Amino acid sequence: MKPLLLKGGRIVDPATSLDSLRDLRVRDGRIAEIGEHLDAAADEEIVDARGTVIAPGFIDMHVHLREPGFEEKETIATGTLAAVNGGFTAVACMPNTNPALDDPTVLSALMQTVQREARCRVYPIAAITRGREGREPCDYAELTAAGAVAFSDDGDSVEDADVLRDAALRARPLDAPIVDHCLPEETLVARDVKLCAETGKRWHIAHVSTAAALESIAAARSRGVAVTCEVTPHHLTFTGALVKEAGAAAKVNPPLRTQSDVDALRRGVRDGTIDAFASDHAPHTEQEKSGDFERAAPGFSGLEVAVGAYAAALADLPLLRFVALLSTNPARILKIRGGTLAPKEAADITIFADRPWRVDPAAFASKGKCTPFAGRRLPRRILATIVGGAVRYRAPDWEA
Ligand SMILES: [Zn+2]
Asked: What one-character DSSP code corresponds to residue 391?
């Protein structure tokens, strides 16, 4: 791994409130130094980063990597390649696999595959209940010891409030938050916010999509309840009208909403109610995403369009805030490393620029080629993704 000297990029690090033109040195897999004019050492590769933004590595805290059990949709290898191509140095993967991530032995096997095949860091989110069936609690301490950073039953929200309350109390001594998918959204967000206040367990609401859900989260936070939330690129962009045009390709959970919901979500990002961007990358086979709407699988690929799509939806968002939502905040919510470019930290770095490009799903590394952003022009693109000092993606046309 060659040491790097990134020269003249705009360094945006929300954790240290730095937004300035600087040089950045990477050595031994870590951020070695940031300064106004750093001299190159003989063994360093010099990267001309003028005109680019250098940020702490982006973290997508909500993806579906499908392995084990649904390798026809995605694998650790293809999903993490999609991640680094999309600018992500780390992802947190959901437990709706087969078997579900409900047991330390399943988690350990997954982490062995990750060690062998992943292109970026992978943090598993374990199930709340056995088999994600909403009845029997998992052993949260054991799952945390095996690498789990959060607990979620994913698409299947725990229906029984008593089961969820019990789970929250059991998991309370652990750092890992409960992540809830809340379908149907309005009633479940209200219920979860109440459980969060009651149990004192940290809670994170996945893919908030309606103005009303956002309001109940904002109200709870103003009372000091420890709840955070995320928003997807598609809920920041499209309304349900897209279904007429795109059919099964636009099918997703929660569904695409109304323009006033989209507007409320954009406001929520700007005013700080929304803490994180997360793609809900949910790849399926072509067959599952075509034909009859009722029978089609919900969800689509997100990792390779997310960064451009957030920028398109929120063109005026200050870069410090943009990077916080993609890196610093997800790291804080999941209590994982990353989210900063402070010296001595692991060199997880995302380099991007405001250069328009057109989405071509055929070029995706992900096995899932379906996205409602197909053919769209997006204003921001990834130039390089560096994980632990190793360049895992470099845009072919970026001459550094
Ligand atoms: Zn999901």
From this structure: E
CA atoms of 53 and 21, how far apart (whole Å): 9
Range of the domain at 224: 58-334
316 is catalytic: no
Burial of residue 99 (CB within 10 Å: 0-12, 13-18, 19+) is middle
State in Å: Cα 57 to ligand 1 middle: 21
Q: Model pTM?
A: 0.97
Radius of gyration, alpha carbons of the chain? 20
Rounded (5°) CA angle 227-238-54? 65
- Selected catalytic residue, list 280, 354, 360, 397: 280
Q: Is residue 286 a contact partner of residue 369, using CB atoms and an 8 Å limit?
A: yes
Question: Ligand 1 centroid vs 180 CA: distance in angstroms?
Answer: 10
Q: How far is CA 219 from CA 192, 215, 321, 333, in A?
A: 13, 6, 22, 19
In a domain, 8, yes or no: yes
Looking at the structure of the chain, the number of domains it has is: 2
Ligand 1 centroid to Cα of residue 10, in Å, is 33
Per-residue pLDDT at 400: 58
Residues of the chain with pLDDT under 70: 399-400
| Residue among 172, 232, 228 nearest 205 (CA) | 228
